Each structure stands twice: as structure tokens, then as C-alpha cells.
Amino acid sequence: MRSFFVYILTNKSNNVLYTGVTNNIQRRIHEHKIKLIPSFTHKYNLNKLVYYEEFTDVNDAISAEKRIKGWLRIKKIKLIESKNPNWDDLC
């Protein structure tokens, strides 16, 4: 069975949040950490995994990503803190 993940990254100061989706979270987070792809995450040094959720259906994962991206920052923070109150790097 395949897995799909929605994840939220931040940087050392937790001042920027990025929400993404992937089918291989270890590979994708590694790409973010080594800045493999020049992107928004590279520009803001987003390499700290603070939230992720696993799905078995790609459409559910994509829907969750879009829903979270539409939220205000405060709601994203509440989501992160519901699973990771200390904002530890989960990677």
C-alpha cells in the first residue's frame, strides 16, 4: 500500500510556514534540508519538519494540503501544536 504525506516545514526561528505533499517524506525532507531544488523553501531556509500526516489516497492528501494552505497562520500553528507542542524537528 502506498502512502502520501502532507507536511509543514519551518525554519530555525519558526517565522515562516510551508505546506507540501509528497509520496516519500524521507526523500522530500532530505531534498529540503540539502537545498536540492531552488525554491521558496530554499530561499527561507525551511528545513525543520514540524508536522506531517499520512494518507493512503493521493486525492485525500492533496485535498488536505489545499485545505491547510488556505488556513490562517494561527490555525496552522494550532494544528502543529496539537501534535508537536514543542515544535521539535520530526525528521
CATH class: Alpha Beta
Q: What is the CATH H-level superfamily?
A: GIY-YIG endonuclease
Order of helices and strands, N to C?
Answer: EEHHEHH
| Mean pLDDT over the residues | 95
What is the first-to-last residue Cα distance? 22 Å
CATH topology: GIY-YIG endonuclease
Per CATH, the architecture is 3-Layer(aba) Sandwich
- Specify the overall morphology: globular
The main sheet orders its strands as: 2-1-3
- So how many helices? 4
What's the domain count? 1
The major β-sheet equals: 3 strands, antiparallel
> From the helix content, strand content and strand pairing, which structural class follows?
alpha+beta
Write up what this structure looks like:
With 91 residues, the chain is α+β, with helices and mostly antiparallel strands. It has a single domain (4-83), classed as GIY-YIG endonuclease, CATH 3.40.1440. It contains 4 helices and 3 strands; from the N terminus they run ββααβαα. A hairpin with a 7-residue loop joins strand 1 (4-10) and strand 2. It is globular and about 35 Å long.
Short summary:
The protein is α+β, with helices and mostly antiparallel strands and 91 residues long.
Task: Show the helix and strand layout.
Blueprint: E1 4-10, E2 18-22, H1 25-33, H2 40-43, E3 48-55, H3 58-69, H4 73-83
Antiparallel strand pairs: 1-2, 1-3
